[in-house]
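In this section we walk through a basic example: taking a raw amino acid sequence and producing a predicted 3D structure, encoded as discrete structure tokens. The instruction is simple. Fold the sequence below.
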Amino acid sequence: MRVSDLLRKIVPALLAVALATAVHAHDRTQQGTLVDESESFGPIDHAYVPPEPETLGGSWDLVDHDGRLVTDRTYRGKWMLVFFGFAACREACPGALMTMSQALDQLGADADDVQPLFIDFTMEEPDLRGLAQFVGNFHPRLVGLTGDRRQTFEVVRKFKVRREFAMANYSSKETGNRINHTTYFYVIDPDGVTRGYFSDRLTAEEAAAEIRHHMARHPARTPVPAPATAEHKGPRGVDLDTLYRLSTQEGESMDSARLRGRPTVLVFGYTNCPEVCPTSLLELTGELRALGPDADRLNVLFVTVDPERDTAERLRAFMSNFDARIHALTGSLDDVLAVAGAFGATVAQGDKSREYYSVNHTASTFLIDRYGMLAEIVPYRDSDGLSRNVRRLLAQ
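The resulting token sequence is shown next.
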């Protein structure tokens, strides 16, 4: 048989096989095809015993969507309703948070004793602005919490939450990574003990019934504290003497003559801060420029919470990016912590054994009047509140 005759017989057969394979492969990726995920699961372990609720949770530290450091003790005195997920989630998390919002509405007046929390365990750097926008779509009291890899891994491990990086995306309509994860709500009593957990597949009415069940079985033993947003209700004295232990990035000591007699604006931060600190300093720079000559009547201070790495030379280079009227202060770690304590600010340094570590700290801006009284605490990224209150202090 000639080669040409052989090819005429073989090629059509090969094309038919290739076409059938292509059609079959195409059918497997057709949109709208339902796949039973249970087919990919392993055999059911009938001996598995779910963990007791009281064994879940414990101590943790994270940052809320306004940049404030919070711990497991921040919301003591209130019930906590916690859901884990990530802000870029397009299905499970929004649906669960909508159920959470509706369940709180079902609770009526009892909802005032419940603090809803969404813990973002994203595998990327924390995006506080994105987190704030995400939780803003749901219940008005919902607080978003996040942190660095150490912090999120620790809280995930303590609640035995599964998180598994799946793939970049499933369709062109999705952006960011997809993370498969546990979708339970965790109910934590006012003393910090986990009393139960339930699936996000419950209806809002069923979820509200679950919460009421635990609230009835475990009444609070500790008094309910004031909400976190009410941390400052009026002027109070500040121990400005703690500031006199510090020195500027130029090596000059602070003294009472520099502070007394005019208002002071103060923020905490550090030069390795990836987002919060530069943003706060840029907002202060914009405010000083908007004030014009009146800005010269203010003391504006940036207190480093990382004095071991923030040398005077490093602070000078960092502060050169902002208005020259903002002065950086540094000192020993003990002296810095004394200042933070005087203002009621929190500072929590990360694992220093690592080459790169973060320092969580209060991100609010503190306003002190000319008499040394704490006049206002402005939340992170509240530009309007900062401008309004600074002008009020200057008008006094």
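Looking at the output, two observations stand out. The domain at 53-229 is CATH 3.40.30.10 (Glutaredoxin). The longest strand covers residues 79-85. In the next section we compare this with other chains.
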